[in-house]
Design a protein that fits this description.
alpha/beta, Rossmann fold, 7 helices, 7 strands, 37% helix, binds S-adenosylmethionine
Length: 215
Amino acid sequence: MKSSEEYKRLSVSEFTKAAKNYENDKAGIYKMCRKDYPPILAEIRNKPFETLLDAGCGTAPMISLLSEEYPNAHFTGLDLTPEMIKQAKAKNLQNTEFVVGDCENMPFEDDSFDIVINSQSFHHYPDPQAFINEVARVLKPGGMLVLRDNTGSKALMWFVNHIELPLANLAGHGDVAARTIDEVRGYCKTAGLTIEKIEQQKGFRLHLVARKNPV
Ligand SMILES: C[S@@+](CC[C@H](N)C(=O)[O-])C[C@H]1O[C@@H](n2cnc3c(N)ncnc32)[C@H](O)[C@@H]1O
């Protein structure tokens, strides 16, 4: 088990190397992240919003798609890896702001966003509860979280977290742990978020939609 700082150092190192080619043909294993974008877009469609945060945005592939579809909304991207944020800023997208920072300790005011999205970043967080608490804090009352990551049975997650990910760490990757659906349910309950949908979908994907209660 590594310290929180060691995992985050590994993540920054991994994604500093990945940033330049993240959205092109040389993206390698990160191409699989693209499968998570359509189900996130599907959850957002027909839900009115003014402000959206992509937490762990990477080079901002999701904000690129969204800012075209919703030209009147304001988009914020947050990522721990400065090189990812540099690539995102270089796109010069309208109505967007990109910030280097930690999803476990977000540099935003309370009640700032109508929607928070999080795609294939959650398994890099040493303290997933801190992240979900931050989402509950920065969402406006009635706001929505859409999260996609990897999940599976307790036995499979044991194998992934005790065998596969430590090997990935040795290879320089910053993955911490994939969480079971019951664990994610618990984080939301503790943070006071109401779960609208939580499923294991095709390809061992976790699909979560949760809401901050309206006042
Ligand atoms: C696999 S990429 C996913 C990027 C993007 N969301 C996508 O779906 O293509 C994971 C991203 O999470 C970021 N990340 C990891 N730990 C983080 C943390 N604690 N706070 C913010 N971003 C983090 C990494 O820097 C990386 O850009």
